[in-house]
Structures are given as C-alpha cells and as structure tokens.
Amino acid sequence: MNLFRSKAKPDAEGYFTTVAAETVQIDQMTAVTINGHKIILTSWDGALYAFSAECPHASADFSKGWISRYKVTCPDHQYCWDVRNGRILWPEDENYRLKKYPVKVEDGIVKVKLG
Asked: Is residue 52 within 8 Å of 33, Cβ to Cβ?
C-alpha cells in the first residue's frame, strides 16, 4: 500500500499536465491540484487563465466563490479580482493581487507552470 503520492514532474519547460482543455469553460472554475498547490483554471474571451485557489486577502478557497466573465469573487468577504491581470477590482483601496500562473494548451491538454 502506497501511503505517499509521488510528485508530478514538469516537462522540459517547467509546465505540469492538468486536464483536457475542453473541460475548462467560460464562467466556470476548474480546480486542479499540482503537488499540493490548488490552482483554479478558467476561460474568458478565448484565453485561458490559471491562478491560486487561495484568496490573497484572507486565504479563503476561491473554488467556493464564483466567477462571472473575468471577475472572480472570494466567498468570505466578496473581494473581487480580474483574472486577466490579477488586479483587485473591489474594494478599490486594497493592494492585494491574485497569484497567477503561466498556462498553455498543448495537444488538447492544459499545462500550468508553477514557477
């Protein structure tokens, strides 16, 4: 019985394989875990985005929040971020940013770079 999961290995460019590209939909969040890092994948206006599932304000789980167009909302305090650039939308006077990750599609598979 294997009690420990082996770590996923990145490709030569540092990207990890996640899910089939068709599973990442507009206005939906797809949560994946890469070596203990929970990542949210989403799509908007023909582009894919990957960001940390942990809210930078209060560490809430974004996968329990909601997304509309390009705006992701934290379930705890309703703080909102733009997934395209990581900037906070509300409240405007805060200085938190989403932790974003490089993402690409290769052979129909979404790949994310953690570094």
From this structure: no
Calpha distance 17→64 (Å, rounded): 23
All residues at 6 or more sequence positions from 62 whose CB lies less than 8 Å from its CB, including other chains: 29, 40, 51, 52, 53, 54, 55, 72, 74, 75
Amino acid at 85: N
The tokens describing 95, both together, are: 């200085």
> Which tokens in the block code for residue 98?
């989403």
Q: Can you list the domains of the chain with their CATH numbers?
A: 15-113 (2.102.10.10)
pLDDT tens sequence across 34-43: 999 999 999 9
Distance of alpha carbon 93 from its chain centroid, rounded? 24
Predicted TM-score (pTM) of the model is 0.92
Give yes or no for residue 1 having a pLDDT over 60. no
Number of H helices, E strands in the chain: 0, 11
Sheet containing strand 37-44, edge to edge, reads 30-34, 37-44, 47-52, 100-101
